[in-house]
Specification:
Largest sheet: 6 strands, mixed
Structural class: alpha/beta
Bound molecules: adenosine-5'-triphosphate
Protein name: ABC-2 type transport system ATP-binding protein
CATH topology of the largest domain: Rossmann fold
Shape: globular
Strand order of the largest sheet: 6-7-8-3-9-10
CATH superfamily of the largest domain: P-loop containing nucleotide triphosphate hydrolases
Pfam family, one: ABC_tran
Distance between the termini: 59 Å
Keywords: ATP-binding, Nucleotide-binding, Transport
Number of helices: 10
CATH class of the largest domain: Alpha Beta
InterPro entries: AAA+_ATPase (IPR003593), ABC_transporter-like_ATP-bd (IPR003439), ABC_Transporter_VariousFunc (IPR051782), P-loop_NTPase (IPR027417)
Radius of gyration: 25 Å
GO molecular function: ATP binding
Strand content: 15-25%
Oligomer: single chain
Helix content: 25-40%
Length: about 325
């Protein structure tokens, strides 16, 4: 239980909107846009205390991170590294022990800013006896959307998350993947500018996971900002523009995914239509220039690509079985189409 009520006094919930408006007026058009920063944590720390106010866990230590408008930002770290604590601080559900969180230039304790935020928690607690349509309509009411707005928005979101065929079924009949999609639709009901996603692909099969990732990329393409926490590193690599890696509450790495993953001092060349003779000549050329040929081979696809191709082919041609060229099928005895 978080009994850290004293920590509330450490936060400074002053309304920043006036000064933010002034800085907008003062800034020349070409200046680096302060408005482009959607979330900013400054020296952010959180200590959970027990009932008697004694320090229990130092969950977050002096975190300095900026999330920019229109990016997908990944928050990574092993269990207990402070990811959920960070999200709760951003939402204003917890107060910092020291430091600040600014969201849209306002202190995170300003609850009105949450009207521009969509949140998909790790576990969505949805009413099992409502249908997807009723669920979204219910959340639309909480945001004071009019009847006409709710009808349009619910229809749009159900299409977006691909639940048209199941929209009249009660959520108790939904699979994990379908429930996750309703959760995402619910997080988007207020057409938020910032979307916080806690483990968005958990429990999804590779197809559901690919669809969820495409949805997240689609949100970024609409100009939304996405902050996501995930243990699925391949998913993070697929969708995130930048990541922060936390360990035991401390920021260990921060940067663009492409930069962080780049292997220095190795050159990659992709070519098609090379003869064996050409490959031999390339190997000789590399040696002549003092390089060391590590491999010259066909690249491998990802397991996700393989899996999705097989499923899509199977849907297009039910009953037929794919024959993989060069695969070792010696243990296979099944019929091939
Ligand atoms: N309400 C609480 N009271 C006391 N300690 C807490 C509380 N919530 C979290 N903690 C502790 O704070 C640390 C960070 O927890 P947090 O939930 O932020 O980690 P996480 O990175 O989200 O973990 P996971 O990947 O398992 O979801 C952990 O040591 C956790 O036990």
């Amino acid at each position: 239980m978080d009994t850290d009520t004293s920590a509330a006094a450490d936060s400074n919930p002053t309304n920043q909107s006036d000064s933010a408006d002034q800085s907008k007026l003062a800034a020349p058009a070409s200046a680096p846009a302060v408005d482009d920063v959607v979330i900013e944590t400054r020296n952010l720390s959180k200590i959970y205390r027990d009932f008697w106010g004694r320090k229990k866990v130092h969950a977050l230590k002096s975190l300095d991170v900026e999330v920019k408008k229109g990016e997908i930002f990944g928050l990574l770290g092993p269990n207990g590294s402070g990811k959920s604590t960070t999200i709760k601080l951003i939402l204003g559900l917890l107060f910092p022990t020291s430091g600040r969180v600014l969201v849209f230039d306002q202190d995170a304790s300003e609850t009105r800013k949450n009207e521009r935020i969509g949140y998909l928690p790790e576990e969505s607690y949805l009413y099992k006896f409502l249908t997807a349509e009723e669920t979204l309509d219910f959340y639309g009411r909480l945001f004071d959307l009019s009847g006409a707005e709710r009808r349009d928005r619910v229809k749009q979101l159900i299409e977006l998350v691909g639940l048209q065929g199941a929209k009249h079924r009660q959520l108790k009949e939904y699979s994990k993947g379908m429930t996750r999609r309703v959760g995402l639709a619910q997080a988007l009901i207020n057409d938020p500018d910032l979307i916080l996603l806690d483990e968005p692909t958990t429990g999804l099969d590779p197809i559901g996971s690919r669809e969820m990732k495409d949805l997240i990329i689609g949100l970024r393409d609409q100009g939304k900002t996405v902050l996501l926490c995930s243990h699925q590193l391949a998913d993070v690599q697929d969708v995130c523009d930048r990541v922060a890696i936390l360990h035991q509450g401390e920021l260990k790495e921060l940067g663009r995914v492409t930069d962080l993953l780049k292997v220095q001092d190795v050159t990659e060349v992709h070519a098609t239509g090379l003869s064996d003779q050409a490959k031999t000549e390339i190997a000789e050329l590399i040696a002549r220039h003092g390089g060391h040929l590590q491999s010259i081979d066909n690249p491998t696809a990802t397991m996700e690509d393989l899996f999705l191709n097989i499923v899509r082919e199977s849907e297009a041609r039910p009953g037929a079985r794919r024959v993989t060229q060069n695969a070792d099928t010696s243990a296979n005895t099944g019929d091939q189409a």
